[in-house]
Every structure is written in structure tokens, then in C-alpha cells.
Amino acid sequence: MDLRLGPGSQRTTLSHRRGEKGGALWSRAGTPGAPSRLRVEMNDLISGGSIVNAEAVWDHVTMADRELAFKAGDVIKVLDASNKDWWWGQIDEEEGWFPASFVRYLSVLSFSLSKVEPHPPQPQTKQVFYLNPIATPRFQNTTSKLWVNQEDGGGEPSEGTSEVQNGHLDPTNDCLCLGSPLQNRDQMRANVINEIMSTERHYIKHLKDICEGYLRQCRKRVDMFNDDQLKVIFGNIEDIYRFQMGFVRDLEKQYNTDDPHLSEIGPCFLEHQDGFWIYSEYCNNHLDACMELSKLMRDGRYQHFFEACRLLQQMIDIAIDGFLLTPVQKICKYPLQLAELLKYTALEHSDYRYVAAALAVMRNVTQQINERKRRLENIDKIAQWQASVLDWEGDDILDRSSELIYTGELSWIYQPYGRSQQRVFFLFDHQLVLCKKDLIRRDILYYKGRIDMDRYDVRDATDGRDDDFNVSVKNAFKLCNKDSEEIHIFLAKKPEEKNRWLRAFHEERKMVQEDEKIGFEISEYQKRQAAMTVRKVTKQKGVNRCTPPSYPPPQDPLSAGQYEVSEDMAQGEVFEFSQSKRGQAPFWQNFSRLAPFRK
């Protein structure tokens, strides 16, 4: 059998002949989503028992259970390629959907070959052909020539049949690798630029389909959707659509059609860097959108409605939750695209420093979005913790805070009393919560108040006599009210513990500033969901208060120990923690093991 890769006009062609005991398939670099004819051939091979593999060129980060996550360079076994945009594949034992655009080229095709007669018997092997996605440019005429005679595998290659240009044969695994790193760097950069522009145009089309095909139709059906439901399902997708249209418009201005490698798109990312933060709200809301859609889809009316919207807009055959996942995938894809672009941008290129800066910016954006997503996933734990605290007063923690930054025991002195009190402190963003342990059940906490961190400054206190309280202190720091003379002083057990608290207060202010910059907040829907979770847990427990969860300790968790300071200690004495003889694990480690307390 001959696998012939010869010169072509605009694309490489393959002349192949199917025998009784083998098969061959040719694939070229393609746009996101394989051509329909190629997909038909792939499915024919798959149904015929052949193995078709694809190589990932970008990481696929996903939060959906039915999707297949992978990293760039992974080899994916394609099990179904009937859809233009989404394929079903397998890595090891995991199966799931993955976007065809993330395997920009069909890079690995393999199929089983039986023994070839009349040559001596040979072990059955799998012949794998690697088509390097980078070394075979999409927009370049391919003129390499390759002949592989599979019917004469044991003989000497005939003249002209072993010529391989831009490739080499890997004898260790019977693989033929087409393409080498010798391609011109400008051509490589042009390929990446073209790919970025192509994916941006496809992405704009997806956003338009969501806004006009789904959201607009949903607003017309007031009998099926209310405003709150639409806000949960679609989030700020319209804001993202408007932002992306402006972003792509500027990209098109910088795109050099004749010489793509000369395009300077780095400045576009820098000019629009603040706009990418709107993805944070969408990503944070995405899980709630999936939950709301899942509820609606239990009713057949909604299934038929969304399917009718898809058909009316002439959208591809993907469920609505697949379309709504697109912005989440897109924001994760930008750092990967920019990293690839930087790889093929010469140092002397005018766009190099802009691309490098853009890569740093987009990595920071995705990192912060992931961090805020993690915080929202923990709000149920915060709500459950609050429910476990007795005698709670005032607003809920989630009304202002979303993250437990640090916790520990400190001795607290407050004007005008000037007497020390031992309390357990929980530092959240915006507030410091004070609790007291039960005298008998040390795992039980009573609410004793809170301090608004937005109104206070943190100041270090030197060891020695303090002028404000007229006492000698050690390992102390202060919280001073910005609008009055109110002062709180806190004493730690060791200098290291004091420094951890000071770092935690600094981190709290930094977090608040970043949240204000991007407009991060917990939606009312998310608060209600957290409250419902608490009520559900409480009902399942069958007690008046839910059992405290096993709350994970924040950074620099305190070492186990009881810190006791007598409240009758004279003011002239030095306030300093001493290690208790009987050690005790931190309270959050014992939450799940202790029996619930009935008030």
C-alpha cells in the first residue's frame, strides 16, 4: 500500500489505496473544526475499527463533568468527530467532549496493520503518522514529497520512494514525523496570528448567537422567564459581547493581511486589559447558571424552547450550556495563545515587548478570576460556620465578606476598661469577628462582636510600656479608629505569630482593593443558595444548629495550644501568652468529629 504525499497547488494531497488488510487517511492543517468531508472519513475509519488520534495544541480547562480536560501536547483518541466544533475523545480511561479548535490540526492518525505477505512474519504493530501542526503551516503551499510503500516494508527503498523533506522517520515507534523546527520563524508567527484572528471571529459569532438567538427570545417569553432567572442564566454576556466587538475591531486594525507576521497585536491586549475583568463576574456566575438551567430542563417546555431557539438562529448542534461555557474557555485560552505568539516573536520584533507584557497581564487576569471562583465555592462553608456560632447578632458574614483570611487566639485589651480578654478572632475581608469559647465545650463558640476593618488602621506596637493603656506589652499590635480615638490592642504568644497577623491584615487590605477594582461581589442569588444549603444541612442533622464543618485553616495556621491570660492580671504586669501544659488541636480540625451542641 502506498501513502503518497506529493506537491499540490494550494494544499497537500494524498493518493492512497485501501487493501484488504490495511487503510490510510490523510489530514491537513485545518481551521477550528475539521471540514465535513474529513470528518466523514474520520468517522468511517473509527467505525471500521481504526484508531484516530488528535494532538492538543492548547490546554483545555473545563468545569463541566462531560468535558475532557487535557494539556497541550496530550494525544487524544478521537471516538466521534461527527460534530464540526465538538468531538468525543478519550485520554487513558477518561472520556468526554472537547472543542475541535483546541486540536487545531489533526496531528496524529493511527490504524492497525496486519502482517504483510509474502515477507517473513513480523510482530503486529501500529503505524502512526505524526503531522506536526507547527511545522506544516496552514497558509503555506506544501511541496514536500513522501512515499511510503507499506506492501514492501521489508525491502530496500526504491529510488524516489524514500525521499523525505521537512521530516524524519522515528524507528523506535514506527512513526513518521513530518515537519521540523527549521521552518521560518516569520511563517510560524504568521500562523499564530492567523489562528488568533480566526478564533476571535468565531468567538464573536458565538456571542452573537447567544445574545440574539437565546437571550433575546427568552426576554419575549415573560410567561417562562423572569428577570432574575435571565440574570442568573446569562450573567453579563451582553457586556462581554460589546467588549469583544471593540477588542476585535482594534485587532483588525493591527492585523496585516499581506504579511501577518508583521502585525502588532500586543498593544491591543494592553489597551483593553481592564475590560477583561468583566469575565470575572461571568465565570463566578457560571456554576449558578448551570444549576438554574438544570432545574428548568426538567420541564419539557424549556427543552423544546431552547432547541427551537437554536434552530431558528441556525446554530450548531450543541446544548445551550455548551454555548454558555464558551466565554469561560475563551478567557483561559488567551494566555496560551499569547505564550505561543511570544515563542515565535523575535526579540528584535517591534511587537515583542508588547506581547510579553500582554502575556503577563492575561495570566494575572486568569489567575485572579480563578482565585475569585475559588472564593465563591467556599461561601457555603462560611455560611455553615456562621450557623454554628451561638448568639449571633447583626448582619451575616456574607453580606460583606467572602474569604476567611486568618484565625487564631489573641489577648485583647479595649478602652476604656484596659483589662485583657482572651478571644478567638476570625479575620475576613472587611471585618474581624470576635468569639468566645465555651468554658466546658471548647469547640463551642459564642459571638462577642466584630470590628469594621474599613474604619481602622493597623499599627505595630513596640515591646514595653504602652502610653495609651499604661501597661507593659509584648508581641502586640493595635487597631486604631480613623475617625475617633478608639484603640484596640492585641497580644500574640510569639513574635512569629504577631508577624503572621500583621501579614494577614496587609493581605486583607490588598484583597479589598483588588475586589473594588474589578467590582467583585457575592450576588443575592448566591447568598440565597448558601442559606438554602445551611437550612438543608440543619434539617438533615435534625438539630437546632448545624454541626460546624471541617473548615480548612488559612495560610500559616497556628500551632496547637491553649493560650490563657488571666482577666485579673494587673495593668502594670507584662501581657504575654504562655504555652498551656495541655495541648489542644485547633478548633476547625475538631469540627467534624465533635457531637452537635443543642442550645
Automatic annotation (TrEMBL):
It comes from the Eukaryota. Pfam families: RhoGEF (PF00621), SH3_2 (PF07653), SOS1_NGEF_PH (PF22697). Residues 1-30, 542-561 are annotated as: Disordered. It is found in: Cytoplasm; Postsynaptic density. InterPro entries: ARHGEF9_SH3, DBL_dom_sf, DH_dom, PH-like_dom_sf, PH_domain, SH3-like_dom_sf, SH3_domain, SOS1_NGEF_PH. Residues 188-372 form the DH domain. Acts as a guanine nucleotide exchange factor (GEF) for CDC42. Promotes formation of GPHN clusters. GO terms for cellular component: cytoplasm; postsynaptic density. Residues 403-510 form the PH domain. Transmembrane segments: none annotated. Keywords: Cytoplasm, Guanine-nucleotide releasing factor, SH3 domain, Synapse. Residues 49-108 form the SH3 domain. Interacts with GPHN. Its main location: cytoplasm. This is Rho guanine nucleotide exchange factor 9.
